[in-house]
Write a structure and sequence with these properties.
Blueprint: H1 15-22, E1 29-32, H2 39-47, E2 52-56, H3 60-67, E3 77-80, H4 87-93, E4 99-105, H5 110-114, H6 143-149, H7 152-163, H8 168-179, H9 187-195, H10 208-219, H11 221-234, E5 236-246, H12 249-263, E6 268-270, H13 280-285, E7 293-299
Parallel strand pairs: 1-2, 1-4, 2-3, 4-5
Antiparallel strand pairs: 5-7, 6-7
Amino acid sequence: MFSYLKVEKHIPVMSAEVLNYLDMKKNGIYLDCTLGSGGHLQIMLERCPEIKIIAFDQDQEAIKRCQQNPFFASKKITFINDNFVNFPHYLTELNISQADGFLFDLGVSSEQLNDASRGFSYRQEAPLDMRMSTESTHSTLTAQKIINNCSCQKLTEIFREYGEEKKAKKIAWRICQVRKKEKITTTQQLVSIVVSCFSQKSKKHPARRVFQALRIAVNQELINLSRGLENALQKLKNDGRIVVISYHSLEDRIVKQIFKKYSELGYYQILTKKPLTPAGEEIVINHRARSAKMRVITRQK
């Protein structure tokens, strides 16, 4: 039975399925579009050491962690500190026209959630930041700027569209009332406001959808996902494959729709009629995997 590899306390999600569906070719070129702590990167190289990998992450800390990992020192890896949506530019610089495969493991990483200073977690006190990249050259938009500057209507739209939050209007109105008196600068200030909009306790934290919505808005995640997938499909070699792991319905819907659109052109084939989900054993080992869904597409000609 496949053993789910642990890399520096990080467990890559659906490792067996990733290796199976990528179907890597010797000396092939692959893009790890969401490097994180390098868990998927490591299992890919252990399975097929001859491949060349271009690994993207907009978080400079993720790049540094992997560059310091001795396992990667002698491998054919090009680390790039940028959002994967910009990968066509780097392929041109590297004189690469097409790739054999792409891996997208979407969402926020465990390391980012555990780093209280980043502001991703509603369970820890931190500045309201939520940028995947803290480099000012990449983005200066933060969750704090959105919360304190957007209109009530815009906040409602963000919470409703990106968080699918039913109480979006009420939460937005309450935020606007509070910020008239004081600037909202920390995660726990925001959590307190959101919690006050709920009269009953639930198993899931009331602020989870609002935090998801803000993170998506700050990092333009859905826009970048759409553009990144479109670019990947156009840069995919014949018999190449794209593997996408998503963690909420908004991401999965985009992947499903884009894969469907391209499969109808006749040049692509969807290999997962329904999204794959983790085995029960993996969910026990890795709680983060519980909401994961995997979709795969290949280019036929």
